[in-house]
Amino acid sequence: MKNHLKTLPAPKTWIIDRKSKRFITRPHPSGHPLSMGLPLGVILRDKLQVASTMAEVKKILINQEILVDGKRRKDHRYQVGLFDVLTITSTHHHYRLLLDHKGRIIITEIPAAESTIKPGKIIGKTILPGGKIQLNLHDGKNILFSKEAAVGDTIVLQVPDLKVQEVLPLKPGALVFFTEGKHSGDLGQLKEIKGIQVVYSQAGKDIETTKKYAFVLGNKKAIITLPE
Fold first, then answer.
1. I want to staple 70 with a disulfide (CB 3.0 to 4.6 A). Which of 97, 135, 136, 159 is the partner?
2. Are residues 109 and 10 in the same domain?
3. Do the domain assignments include residue 224?
4. What is the Cα–Cα distance from 168 to 26, expressed in whole angstroms?
5. pTM of the shown model
6. pLDDT band, residue 174 (cuts 50/70/90)
7. Are residues 193 and 162 in the same domain?
8. Do 108 and 127 have their domain in common?
9. Is the pLDDT of residue 94 over 70?
10. Of 32, 24, 58, which Cα lies nearest the Cα of 44?
11. Domain region containing 126
12. 101-111 pLDDT tens trace
């Protein structure tokens, strides 16, 4: 694995300066795809501008509490991924990584009350010895869960202890957010599931796209703050 990453071939989901800078920090591998997250150092320096250089970022990470999903992180290469919560304890500010209407990663400030929850999409289920069910989530986390939940559903986690607060099923009527494909960043109401395809409604228009791109975020109202 290379430790460097040139700005030109960096993921198109990253909103970065590709002309004046030749290199950008490559995040360490995580449960998120490279295109669905940003290095913690880049977020603090370039997005939130709490530091002007990466050297300053490293000092901040050592001397201050910077939390991701409620856990302290000191590595500037740590990858903060889609729907992760970033907290700067010294200023009491909370942020979540989301996608804009063009499918690009953005940092959105959220209220403190919302910083303790995180949606996790179920992308797989594993039966463990003893008949226990393990849910495999979109961000690489694995959760033991005994209640009914299907692949494609979303579970609402309390961070950092990862307790399941609620299950949001993928079914008609659900509010869905699309994380990949041509309609990445879209939010709409799910109308129909047709095999591997889904139909959702947005601004009175019905749109069909791939089912695996749908991420349930609520019923009539999203459980998290979304960009306008």
1. 159
2. yes
3. no
4. 34
5. 0.92
6. very high
7. no
8. no
9. yes
10. 58
11. 117-168
12. 999 999 999 99
